Each structure stands twice: as structure tokens, then as C-alpha cells.
Amino acid sequence: xxxxNKIIRCSVCNxxxxxxxxxxxKYKIYRDRIDRPLPGxxxxxxxxxxxxxxxxxxxYEKFNKEWNNGIQNKFxxxx
Length: 79
What we know:
- It is a single chain.
- The protein is α+β, with helices and mostly antiparallel strands.
- The chain has a domain at 28-68.
- 15% of the residues lie in helices and 25% in strands.
- It has one helix and two strands, in the order E-E-H.
- Strands 1-2 form a two-stranded antiparallel sheet.
- Strand 1 and strand 2 (45-54) form a beta hairpin.
- The longest helix is centred in the last third of the chain and has 12 residues, at 57-68.
């Protein structure tokens, strides 16, 4: 099976982050948990974790400002 290289991009400006490595402290990362009810269940939830990454402090501030104002589906999570 061939290795798949994922292209990691900033969640705000869509800039490609070529030198990103997992665990790197160079980029700011925000992780969010979404709780979705399981089919037919009202009290049991499936937890989905979504990760956003930012190329700069300015992109993070823009994300944080709009996220707090209720605009969540404008940004691209990393795959």
C-alpha cells in the first residue's frame, strides 16, 4: 500500500504548511469535541474530535474572534 502524504493547511487562510510535524510547537492548534447523539439514542453520544491549525497568531486571533461569535462552520479542520 502506498503512503499517503496529507497536505496540512492553515484552517483560516488555507496556506500550505510544508514543514508541519505532529507535536511541533511552531503552530497553534485548537481541538474541539463535537457530541453527536447515537442513532435512536437520546442519552448516549458519539464524540467526534476536530482539530484546527493556524499558521500565525493573526490567523488564530481571527478564528477565535469569529468562533466566539458563533461562526463555526467557516473554518477548515485538518484531515
